[in-house]
């Protein structure tokens, strides 16, 4: 599916047409520039039986906790690098559920998996639409979580680091 057919990107483009202040307008325009359609696959199609068994023993996804679920799976896979030799990244972006919702999932190697929708919500992720905004290496993810003091909205935080250092510094100070 290309960008023109992806309703997530189309609706985000529509957000740029609304009357926003200059800063908010720039933010939404950057979201549209950064947004890329991706396709998640079932974990069993991406991971080996041994990898899945390991995850099952140490990890439990929870509904309505996508940011935490994705971060915890990234850290688990990173710590077990002897079993997960490919790169692992935390992804923030969108999933489409009648309208785009902010969502987090995982990239292992060059393939995407969604532990929340698959494991906690029991959805067939192959039928869902996704778009990626930001891909964070485990070290950057860890640093951002420590700096912000919470899961989620890390794309927004990264945007502020690049475009509004005063706002980013205020977030860091609030969490000290």
Explain what this protein looks like in three dimensions:
The protein is an alpha+beta fold and 176 residues long. It is built from nine helices and five strands. It has one domain. The radius of gyration is 17 Å and the shape is globular. 33% of the residues are buried. The model has no long low-confidence stretch (mean pLDDT 92).
Tell me the layout of helices and strands.
Elements: H1 7-15, H2 22-34, E1 36-38, H3 43-46, H4 49-58, H5 66-79, E2 88-96, E3 100-108, E4 111-113, H6 115-120, E5 129-136, H7 138-148, H8 154-163, H9 165-174
Antiparallel strand pairs: 1-5, 2-3, 2-5, 3-4
Helix pairs in contact: 1-2, 8-9
Task: From the structure above, extract its key features.
single chain; 176 residues; alpha+beta; 5-stranded antiparallel beta sheet
Taking all Cα atoms into account, the compactness measure Rg is 17 Å
Number of domains: 1
Structural class: alpha+beta
Average of per-residue pLDDT values: 92
State the shape.
globular
Looking across the biggest beta sheet, what order are the strands in? 1-5-2-3-4
Low-confidence stretches: none
Q: Quick one: how many beta strands?
A: 5
Helix amount, in percent?
40-55%
Series of H and E elements: HHEHHHEEEHEHHH
Describe the largest sheet: 5 strands, antiparallel
Short description:
With 176 residues, the chain is of the alpha+beta class. It has nine helices and five strands, in the order H-H-E-H-H-H-E-E-E-H-E-H-H-H.
């Amino acid at each position: 599916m290309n960008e023109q057919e992806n309703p997530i990107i189309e609706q985000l483009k529509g957000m740029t047409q609304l009357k926003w202040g200059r800063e908010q307008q720039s933010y939404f325009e950057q979201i549209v520039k950064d947004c890329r359609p991706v396709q998640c696959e079932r974990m069993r199609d991406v991971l080996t039986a041994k990898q899945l068994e390991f995850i099952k023993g140490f990890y439990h996804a929870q509904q309505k906790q996508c940011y935490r679920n994705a971060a915890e799976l990234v850290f688990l896979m990173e710590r077990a690098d002897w079993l997960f030799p490919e790169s692992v990244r935390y992804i923030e972006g969108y999933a489409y559920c009648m309208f785009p919702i902010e969502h987090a999932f995982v990239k292992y190697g060059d393939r995407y998996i969604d532990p929340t929708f698959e494991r906690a919500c029991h959805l067939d992720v192959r039928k869902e639409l996704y778009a990626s905004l930001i891909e964070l290496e485990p070290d950057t993810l860890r640093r951002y979580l420590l700096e912000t003091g919470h899961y989620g909205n890390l794309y927004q935080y990264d945007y502020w680091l690049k475009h509004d250092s005063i706002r980013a510094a205020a977030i860091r100070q609030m969490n000290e």
